[in-house]
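WARN retry 2 of 3 for item q-0093 after timeout on previous attempt; input resubmitted unchanged.
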Amino acid sequence: KDRQGDYHLLENYGKKLGFTVKEIPEHLLHKVIVSSTRIREALIAGDVSTANEYLGYDYFFEGIVVDGDKLGRQLGYPTANLKIEDHEKLIPGNGIYAVVIEFPVSGFQLPVSAGNRQQATGNKYQGMMSIGVRPTITADATKRVIEVNIFDFNKDIYDQKLRVYVKHYMRPEVKFNGLDELKLQLSKDKQEALSLLEQ
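OK item q-0093 returned
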C-alpha cells in the first residue's frame, strides 16, 4: 500500500510466516534500467524498436475485425478495422507501422498464394497498420481507429480475431490534400513496410 512494501518487508514477513523470498535484480539493457513504465512510454511515443528491445519480443495486441467504411478497398488498400476487446491493452501511439498479422483462432487457416512476396509462414502475414483519427477522410478528429492492410490478401474475415505484431514505426499520421495524394503515399508505405519486414 502506498508503495511502502519492498524486499525487506517481504523478507521479514517470510521469517515470521515461513516462506522464502528471492530478490531478482533489475534487468539492465545498454545501462538503462528496463521497466514497464519505460516500455509503456516508448509504445505511446511510437518507439516500437525500443519497446521491442526492452521486452525481448515484438509487442502485440489482438482485435476483432469489424465493419468499416470500405474506403481502403476503393483506394486499392483494403483494411481490417480492429475493435480491441481488452480495454487494458496498451495500443501504440498514432502513426503508420510495419506489422505481421496472425490469425490465432484455431480451425481458421488462411491460404497462402504462391509468389506473393508475403514471406508468410503458417498463419502469419505481412502488412501495414494505421493508428489514428484519419484526418484526410474524416471530420471527426477524436475517434481513434486501428486499420490493418494485409498484403496480397483479399478474403472476408469479419468477426475474426487477429493478432498484430508491431515490428516497425514508419511515419506519423498526416493529413493529405485529397485521396489521390493519400493513395500515392500508401504505395510508398507498402514498399517501405515490405523492405523493413524482409530485413
